[in-house]
Fold:
Amino acid sequence: MNWWILFQMSQWLASVPGPPQDYMLSADAFFADARSQQLLILEKPDTLLLDVALFQATNEARRLAGLPSLRYDPALSQAAQRHAESMIQYNYTSHEDLYDLSEMTLLKRIQKQTNRFGRLAENVGQYQTIDTPEWFGVRFNAKTQRFEFLDIYNNQLYRPHTYASYARYAVGQLLNSARHRANLLNPLFTHVGCAVRLSSRPFRERRAPFGRLAQNFGAPSVANQASR
Structure:
């Protein structure tokens, strides 16, 4: 092959973006990083860091169950991001997007991005972003025009989760659901895309702030596996 062609191909390959570096870390390394221990700024979260935290917490749970880690996939991730954003924008938690029929189902959302996966599954959920017990108090602060969430016995305000604690909390809740657990710990899946988007008016409503998440799981189709 012509050396010039080889040079051009190497330049092109070097320019193709790989997955964000945090996806390449082990779960232990990611959660040991100080960034994952930052408190969530609910009005302006680092959505990439939040998505990575959910990805890493997912693999942490699989490792504890004796399963191989899932690989990051940009197409599954993009589909998860779009669905999480839709659920926040239109205020629903469902596998079906009735506000964009071209992305109504998981299959449609994934097929918009890729046709590499023959087996698919999805987890969606809504989980509170402040770290409270089951029972807590709510009051309106007229000075700040914000709702506050507090311990009813000592009036101590509850703080948001960290990126790490929220991701682990959400995965823990998913594992408590038989269907979600079956997807998350399915040994047949090889890839995943994770996304979390937070409620748009934190502390402006009486209900506690929350995030809505999507996990898209995939395993390559037989045809794609045979072509490798």
Summary: The chain has a mean pLDDT of 91. Residues 47-64 form the longest helix (18 residues). The chain has one domain: 21-131+161-222. The chain is about 35% helix and 20% strand.
